Amino acid sequence: MPDDVTNQIIGAKETVAKIGGALKGDAVSVDFNRLIPMPKILALGPYLVSIGYRARACLSGYPVSGPCPKDMSDDEFDTFILYLRALRETGHDSATSWRCSHWGTKWNAYDVKVEENAITFTTASDCPDPIVEALAKSVPDSWVWSYVNNINGVRGTWTCKDGSLGWDEPDNISVRA
What domain range is 71 assigned to? Predict the structure, then answer.
């Protein structure tokens, strides 16, 4: 289970409405895919990764539980080929790996609360810095994005003004150091 990180975006009512439009998948969700879309080939799930890992291990000579590519059923082999395609096309062999690299967190937002002047939600393990940066380009108004890691207390604040981001780390505690 990752550390939960509480994120809150605060701004004028009109700005928060624009941010909601840029981020929301529906009335009660925040969807990072709206700003930085994950390649569809990676949305095939854990089965893709499971088959891929087993096949790569087998081809490398490591003992595995499950069939090697030559012993796979046609469906398993087709899934292995999709795994290799995903790796070749994206540089990542799983959705989690891609999200960590491109969103800064391994899952999409959860526990979303939308208010008139704020959107609050949770992310896994860290503030999604690439999402903050993409949001500043998408909604260059004035707004503030604060976050705090609920386990280790790491916190920080991004401030957007006219599309430029400023960074403030009030406690001088960071995993970025």
Answer: 40-100
pTM > 0.90: yes or no: no
Q: Contact 8/147 with Cβ under 8 angstroms? A: yes
**Where is the domain boundary, 100, 123, 151?**
100
Instruction: Say if CB 95 and CB 52 are below 8 A apart.
Output: no
For the chain of 177 residues, list the mean pLDDT of each consecutive stretch of 10.
85 86 69 91 71 74 74 84 86 88 92 88 91 91 90 86 81 46
Phi-psi label, residue 71: left if phi above 0, alpha if psi -120 to 50, beta otherwise: alpha
Do 18 and 69 belong together in one domain?
Answer: no
Number of domains present in the structure of the chain: 2
